[in-house]
Amino acid sequence: MTLFALRSNRVASAILSSLIGFCGLAATAAAQTFEAQTIDPAVEIGYGLAVGDVNGDGKPDILLADKSHFAWYENPTWKKHIMVKRLTLRDNVCIAAADIDGDGRVEVAVGGQWNPGETNDKAQSGSVHYLVRPADPTQPWQAVQLFHDPTVHRMRWVRTDAGDWRLVVLPLHGIGNVKNAGENRVNVRSYTPPAPDRIADPAAWTHVVIDHSLHAAHNFDDLDGDILVGGVQGILRKPVMDTDPDENAFVITPETSEPPTVGVGELRFGRGFIAAIEPMHGNEVVVYEKPDGAAKWRRTTLTDAMNQAHALAVGDLMGTGRDQVVAGWRNPDAAGKVGIRLYHRASDTATTWQAVIVDDNAMACEDLKLVDLDADGRLDIVAAGRATMNLVIYWNRK
User: Is 207 helix (H, G, I), strand (E, B) or coil?
Assistant: First the structure.
């Protein structure tokens, strides 16, 4: 995760003075307009984002894993509340939020002690904590330390097909891994939370490795109880309840895709396709589709011009009934810019995708999420910037 010096064009105002509006380049695309609002101009790094209702008022809030603290921003004032400070010696790296007990308020898990170069000593690399909610969620939360592997990198709550929940945690490397190779591969680990009255007891949590196929892995997604994991060898998919770690769950590899996959950093489920950033911290945004009867997945490149692409989301922001792809990158490209782009196409079977600019050099994007923050029926974009040190809402004003 290389930091670079970028300070120009940083978003400084609470609301940009003008709308960031762009017409889709395809003839069938309607005008798409976003309005940028900076809700925190002093982010340290902005490693990871989550969204969910923290205080139970029915509005989705924004949660951030920053370098030395975890925080939530209260909808609609966006007042910042610190949950935990300096949880581990090294940087925080990930956060997961979901209402797993049905009370209308999210449960939160976090990961820290980011030390990707140390793949053996888990005391010096990685952490997993469950955060116990206080009576007043604006006050500090209690951190409960759980078992972890080294190089913890991503986590999310996954709802099983039976309706209960698992916390799935993904390290970057296998134990003892050196340069994406080694005897041990990445332990994709699933945690089962205990009953609410024992949630603060680490001994009450159970966990199991559900896959160890990948030499290195960067991120994952979930859908209907399945997880989709991307790594240097390709993409695997399996039910979160499938606890056979030796099962061959690969769906996309260089042998099963055309052109061949080059290794995956970010990836997301889309309606009828899988979106990915390739390779890890790469320059390409691609989609995979497998038409009926096809022997291989068709790999379509949307762009190969990003530098350190690191954020990806899929959803229907344009109201077309089809999913679009939103991607952000964090290092200056050939034009010296960072930013966010939205990619769309005219039909479910079209192979040509068009680009819409969401952010033009004000967001060195580390992570982004899609969520309808103002209940207007349109998905908005929330993004955290690394070198630009900002947390921004891009309001969908289509």
Answer: strand
Q: How far is the C-alpha of 177 from the C-alpha of 161, rounded, in Å?
A: 33
- 180-204 pLDDT, tens digit per residue, is 888 899 999 999 999 999 999 999 9
Assigned token pair, 237: 């998919």
Q: Which uninterrupted H or E stretch holds 310? A: strand 309-315
Strand, coil or helix: 208: strand
Angle at 202 between CA 197 and CA 208, to 5 degrees: 110
How do residues 248-267 score in pLDDT, each as one tens digit? 999 999 999 999 999 999 99
Closest by CA to 50, choosing from 273, 313, 267, is 313
pLDDT of residue 31: 65
Are the C-beta atoms of 327 and 345 separated by less than 8 Å? Answer: no
Residue-wise burial string across 171-192, b where 16 or more C-beta atoms lie within 10 A, e elsewhere: bbbbbebeebebeebbbbbbbe
Q: If we measure between CA atoms, which residue out of 344, 371, 341, 372 comes closest to residue 359?
A: 341
Which amino acid is located at 342 in the chain?
L
**Spatial separation of the C-alpha atoms in residues 345 and 353, rounded to whole Å:** 5
Nearest to 387 by CA among 329, 311, 341: 329
Distances (CA, A) of 4 to 1, 308, 328, 364, 386: 10, 11, 16, 10, 9
Give the Cα separation of 232 and 180 in Å (integer).
8
Q: Measuring CA to CA, how many Å separate 165 from each of 99, 101, 168, 318, 340?
A: 9, 9, 9, 31, 32
Distance CA 179, CA 189 (A): 22
Say which DSSP state 29 is in.
P
Could you say which residues of the chain have pLDDT below 50? 1-30
Pairing of strands 297-303, 257-258: parallel
What DSSP letter does each residue of 261-298 carry, written as one string?
Answer: P---S-EEEETTEEEEEESTT-SEEEEEE--TT-SSEE
